Each structure stands twice: as C-alpha cells, then as structure tokens.
Amino acid sequence: MTASDTMKAVVLEPSGRLADAVLPRPVPGPRDLLVRVQAVSVNPVDTKQQPGDAPRVLGWDVAGVVEAVGPECRLFRPGDEVYYAGDITRPGGFSEYHVVDERIVGRKPKRLSFAEAAALPLTSLTAWEGMFERLGLDTDDNQGRPILIIGAAGGVGSIATQLARRAGLTVIGTASRPESRAWVLHHGAHHVIDHTKAFLPQLQALGFPAVDTIFCLNVVHPHWDAMMDALAPLGKVCTILPPFAPVDFRKLFDKSATWCTEAMFARPKHRFDMEAQHRILTRLAEFVDKGEIRSTLREHFGLITAANLEKAFAQIQSGRTIGKLVLESFA
C-alpha cells in the first residue's frame, strides 16, 4: 500500500482510548463524495460512542473540499467546498479523507472559514428539523410567537436561538451561569431564564402566562414537570433526547398537548428523504452569507489529533460547554 492509498485518522480503540492511526483511504460509492477534511467539530454523540471489536473512526461534523465524486453524483464536483454532519452508521470524519452521501451535504457558506463552518451542520440540522419540521413553526414569519429553548447556550441551542430569532419568534432561552446567559443573549434571545429553577414563575414575571412551544435540548426528565407546568393547553414539546427516567404523561394528556422527538441522524440511518438535509444546509448557507446567522464556534482545540480530541471530549463531558468546539487540519 502506497502513501497515496492511506490517510491519517483518529480512532476509538477497543480499549476505549482515542489513538492516532494510519488507515486505507476510502473509496466513494455511487452517490458518495470523497472529501478532503479541513476541519471538524465535536458533539456529545462522539463522546457517547461505545468501543467495538475493531478501531472505529468517530466525528460527525465536517467541513472540507470535494476530492472525487461517485459515478451517480449530480449535486457536487471536485473542488467544491462543503460542510455536513454525515451518517452515524458509517465511519466518521476524524480522518484526512471521508466519504459521505452527497444528498446530506451542503456547500460551505462562502463567508466562513472551514473551522467556522464545521461548527454548524449537526446542530443546525437538529435545530431546523426540530423547530420547523417537528414543531411545525414557520421558517420566516412567526409574528412574535414565544418559544422556550431549554439549554440555549449549548451547540444546538446557540443555532436554534439564532434561527428562531430570524424566524420572527420571541425567544426565551435558558441558561444557569453568567457566561452562558451572556452567550444566549449575544445570539439573539429576547429573554433568559434559569433552568435550575421552576419555569412558570419566571415566565410569568416576564409577562408570559404560558408558552405553547418548547424545544428541550437538555436531558428530559429533570425538566419534565417544569415544562408541563409552563406549557399551554394544546401546546407542543420537542426533545432531542429520550427520557432516561420515568416521566408523568398524565400532565401531557391533561393539556391535550403533543410531545415529539428530533433525531438528526434518522434520515441517513433509515435512508428516507435524505436530500432534505442538502436543502436545509443550502438554505442555512444562504442565511450565513447574508449575515443573518453566525457561526457558533467558541473554542478551537488545534490540530486533529488524539490528544486534542481527548481534551475536547473532556470539555463536552463536563456538561459546561458553551457553543461549539472545533479542530482543524492534520499535522
């Protein structure tokens, strides 16, 4: 095997440790792009992956340049700059080269660097699908309708707040620390409340007797009762995690309310309506290039190495991450 047939990568070993490795360069399938990876970002999903019997490449947020295309590709050509979240059922992007189905890829926003762009795909798709598809909100004109975003300072919350503000919603974000509260306000929230306290009294103090739309980006069960108290009759709640402890569904039933879930990887995993993610990322790039949405990059962890990824994983696992963490280039 020659040097042109291999690539640098970071793998999750069977021992559970991250390690630098050299792997065979992947070959694109019929609808795949071969992407030369320029930057990646780290998400909680990376830190939750379990080791297997063989080394595994993680990483599902990539910005890079198309190196080659499969014979059935029609959306991209070599040289295109792209960004995407990828498919959790396939190897991730902590590698010099990565293959991805073109139907879940968008052209990188022109005004962003690769590092800034890598911060956006997974969280933006989650926010967009959760708010505009699951909760049924309008993408452009919601006439001041209030939305409560629980966990607004995190990766998804940082972009959800911007998209909600742009869509004409009155954004009430939650944050529990001065620095996270400042981040939420900086990204467009009209109001910030503390998610370690009861929601309803804080909402009422702001003039909201209840809210009919809640987007929960934190662990569900600690906030369930507070959400049910704050939710208006016939309201909707969308969560991006399942409850990890029992919750009282009678409270939901009592208000004839709706609970829905958002799983960003569902489209590529089950291979349905995949090109919708291409369209979402394309539209998001338009918003960015118009100056309506900014990158949520907050910390740059340097080169893509096992040691730097270990540090980024530890930051994610601390539960105190604000915005997105990014790594860029291989040595």
TrEMBL record:
Keywords: Metal-binding, NADP, Oxidoreductase, Zinc. SUPFAM superfamilies: GroES-like, NAD(P)-binding Rossmann-fold domains. It comes from the Bacteria. Coiled coil: none annotated. One of its GO terms (molecular function) is zinc ion binding. InterPro entries: ADH-like_N (IPR013154), ADH_Zn_typ-1 (IPR014182), ER (IPR020843), GroES-like_sf (IPR011032), NAD(P)-bd_dom_sf (IPR036291), Zinc-ADH_QOR/CCCR (IPR051603). Residues 16-327 form the Enoyl reductase (ER) domain. Pfam families: ADH_N, ADH_zinc_N_2. Belongs to the zinc-containing alcohol dehydrogenase family. Quinone oxidoreductase subfamily. This is Zinc-type alcohol dehydrogenase-like protein. It comes from Alicyclobacillus cellulosilyticus. The lineage of its organism: Bacteria, Bacillati, Bacillota, Bacilli, Bacillales.
